Amino acid sequence: MITFLAIDWASVGIKALQLILSLSILVILHEMGHFLPAKWFKCRVEKFYLFFDPWFSLFKKKIGETVYGIGWLPLGGYVKISGMIDESMDKEAMKQPAQPWEFRSKPAWQRLIIMIGGVTVNLLLGFFLFAMILWWWGENRLPMSNMKHGVAVNSISESVGIKNGDEIVSIDGKPVKDYYSLTRDIILDEVKAVQVKRDGKIISLPLPKGTIRSLIKRKQQFIEPRVYPIVDTLFPGIATFTQDTLLKDDHVLALNNTPVTFYDQYRAEMGKYKNQEVALTVLRNNKDTVIVKAKTDTLGRIGFLVIPEKVAGSYKQKFDFFPAFPAGVRKGWENLVMNVKNFKLLFTSDEVKASESLGSFMSIGNMFGAEWDWEIFWSMTALLSVVLAFMNMLPIPALDGGHVLFTLYEIITGRKPGDKFMEYAQMVGMVLLLGLMAYAIGLDFWRFLFK
């Protein structure tokens, strides 16, 4: 059970602000994608809203024929176009004869352009943001060839049969080039076997059933780079130093005179010394050997962090301004494909459970940084823009994809679905979406309260 007093409300607030700002940008631009072509084709736009406004609005102002406003329910936004069956379910207006300025009076091709405008803007925005991120900050890279000492296992990879020091060569015969894509590819491609190099020989290790589910449930990397125990970050207060102190870039050579070559060996050895004084032999400045003594805590920790990816030689690959644009499109497309695969797995995989994978705005908010970080903010906004484009194109009534499907049917067959059918389809779609949203919010609250 969660203790509310133990929650870091400052970080929760920062995450919430980032989420609201990100959603505001995405919703406004998405709805602008509908608004502009509607205006170009001489449709009357009655409302343009950021967030939903059941019962009341936080702000509204009429400019010309359109009311611009901000709702109080931050679950999306909308533009209300005259003569269109949408979230407003304005049945009375639909009973009147069609007017030249109404959506329903326009040719099917114009209505199709209006409906795909929001998704188009979200895709272009995602591509643009990824391009700017690659140009300004770059992208994390860690070639598998940089991992000179192989991999360090955890409980998941160890259960597969991988050993510390193995070199991962391929998954299902497909070469693995970069560490950061390994876990993602294992999950999305439902990999059946991992090929490793051990003692000069290639061994194929099948993944037992439940491996992929464990990776998703624990949100854990499949392996880590095997590296030397080189101090990166210190956490004051975890342990009490009784002789000297650890410094950044200290290289731990031994623990209580037992040599520890790699970080995984250090962790295994340290687990034997809980709430005890230990002596660390460290190499400082690549020349001085120093003895550091400290009392460990009840978990056997001294309070320093090694970042294996950093020690193994990860780096930021940056792009020049113009090459960043095709690279941004590629990255955006990769994320779109990832979302399609992930969605497919919800229905086809025994390993991927909706109750463990689905989440609402609470889950999304937790993906932002606990401190304001513009790289994380724009990366999340780019990702959400692509996700929003994909989700809106699902052929579900009440989503853009549902309207597009009915419009394409009209263009192909020459028969327009009746207004009554469209009303009922919209109602069914709204019920489905609200039910899914309620389910996702319920899952998040369950995790928050009991996990």
TrEMBL record:
The chain crosses the membrane at residues 12-30, 112-138, 376-396, 424-446. Residues 19-435 form the Peptidase M50 domain. Its EC number is 3.4.24.-. GO terms for biological process: proteolysis. Its cofactor is Zn(2+). InterPro entries: PDZ_sf, Pept_M50_Zn, Peptidase_M50. It is found in: Membrane. The keyword Ribosomal protein does not apply. One of its GO terms (cellular component) is membrane. The keyword Transcription regulation does not apply. It comes from the Bacteria. One of its GO terms (molecular function) is metalloendopeptidase activity. It is a multi-pass membrane protein. Keywords: Hydrolase, Membrane, Metal-binding, Metalloprotease, Protease, Transmembrane, Transmembrane helix, Zinc. It is an enzyme of class 3 (hydrolase). It holds the Pfam family Peptidase_M50. Belongs to the peptidase M50B family. NCBIfam families: RIP metalloprotease RseP. This is Zinc metalloprotease. It comes from Paraflavitalea soli.
